[in-house]
Specification:
Elements lengths: L3 E5 L8 H16 L3 E4 L5 H12 L4 E6 H5 L9 E5 L2 H11 L2 E4 L4 H15 L7 E4 L6 H12 L5 H5 L1 E4 L2 H16 L5
Parallel strand pairs: 1-2, 1-5, 2-3, 3-4, 5-6, 6-7
Helix pairs in contact: 1-2
Amino acid sequence: MIKRLAVYCGSAPGVDPAFADATRALGKLMAERGIDLVYGGGRLGLMGIIADTVLEHGGKVYGVIPESLVAHEVAHLGCTELHKVADMHQRKAKMTELADAFVALPGGIGTLDELFEAWTWNALGYHSQPLCLLNVNGFWNDLADFMDHVSASGFLSAARRTQLLKAETAAEAIDLLDAAAQSAAQGVTW
């Protein structure tokens, strides 16, 4: 069972109110299920919403933020623990160390960078934590289609492609990640 979930998401709220609504739903469900949040440590956008929601519902929040962003006053100072690191590389490594699984909410290039690095590290055997896209209003459909194209073009095995899970709701995402984490713990390749 997942104890700490890394959530990758935008430092902006996006234009669709459903993005913030889904973020709140995920944060509330995480707190209800006793799943701690690991995230990028920011107070803005979806990042701030997920942290605030988990905290408001009695959950724990572990932020990991580069010193340069702390200096720009974007750090969420209400985190249960705020880990300050030197750079983005150390941020991603620390988040991977702290988390049992990863979910990507809508976001931009930073979200994609974090997601793809976690997936790459999994492929290289650095960790076995599962990954899931929370597909709010079809946000990730084009990316999923592109990854199907990458696989069909011979650059991603079918087995590796299936590692990137996709869920339509927060509950489905957590359930898929729990099942994949249990399989990985039993030595089953997911």
